[in-house]
């Protein structure tokens, strides 16, 4: 029996099993087995030849993976937002390899990767799905392109495919401390009441992974699935924007309903509707800020800002300008929304805001 057959057997048993107090241990074990087989499926065997992937050099200030089912308008969006031409046609599987483009927005270069259409069963390697998903894991943001005329069927299928390969969309890492030990058995603790798991279930899941000595501390009420994610330690937590294309083909009431869903943006690539709002949303989801530099006695240089992540300190800005600057740093003068008055003299730990101006004074 191959891994694929084992996975489908376990999935069938999970769907057959009723969820109640009596079956929670059994379900927990099945989920642990399923996660184990899926990770075996993704890690190529030692004997096999190195698989052919999409080697795209990471460039720019951030990377967005554009994924979706075939023929939803991904290539059209890439051609519209970037200067890259991706072949677009009304038949499925027009794009067969990974096509990178660069969005120039607010002075930042954001790499947008148009990945081939994902089909159902991509996680098992169908339709180049495994290479597509491997590239998606390296992105800072997933842009999921959906067809507004096809309800939410595509969205659920894509989320399921990504979930099965360890990509968690719009979720944060479970607050569980987990550490393997040399001996001493299982040390289990929690700082809050647990309603979804108990010590016995944790022990059974760990035994499934051949782990007998470990320290586990739950800092929040997590499920068995979240514990498995922590044990596997290869999960990627990414923000995701759901972009619904072809809104010119549905009613205004339906557009309004979709637009009010969480993390959703409605666009029409053919009629170029709402693309400016999409760019604004991507900027916010990527947590990017611009910081401008100023030399003593000269006006700020607004033509060439530093593109950094939200929450960076003055020390990060020093490293971004030059790696030796932080060693000679004395203090900085900052103009902008991060200060009480302008200019304010600040230290290396001061947190910068978008469009702040900084002048660094050396020792």
Explain the overall architecture:
The chain has about 375 residues and is of the alpha/beta class. Helices cover about 30% and strands about 25% of the residues. The strands form four sheets. Strands 2-3-1-4-10-11 form a six-stranded mixed beta sheet, with helices on both faces. Strands 13-12-16-14-15 form a five-stranded mixed beta sheet. Helix 1 (about 5-15) runs antiparallel to helix 2 (about 25-40), helix 2 (about 25-40) runs parallel beside helix 7 (about 225-230) and helix 6 packs parallel to helix 7. It is globular and about 75 Å long. Residues about 45-50 and about 90-95 have low confidence and may be disordered.
Features:
6-stranded mixed beta sheet; alpha/beta; TGS-like; GTP-bd; Beta-grasp_dom_sf; about 375 residues
> How many strands?
16
Secondary-structure element series: HHEHEEHEHEEEHEHEEHEHEEHEEE
How far apart lie the N and C ends? 69 Å
Mean pLDDT: 82
- Low-confidence runs: 45-52, 90-95
Strand count, sense and closure of the main sheet? 6 strands, mixed
Estimate what percentage of residues fall within beta strands.
15-25%
SS element count, helices: 10
Q: Give the fraction of residues assigned to helices.
A: 25-40%
Shape annotation: globular
The radius of gyration over CA amounts to 24 Å
In spatial order, strands of the major sheet run: 2-3-1-4-10-11
Return the structural class.
Answer: alpha/beta
Keywords: GTP-binding, Nucleotide-binding
Domain OBG-type G: 62-287
Pfam families: MMR_HSR1 (PF01926), MMR_HSR1_Xtn (PF16897), TGS (PF02824)
Domain TGS: 287-362
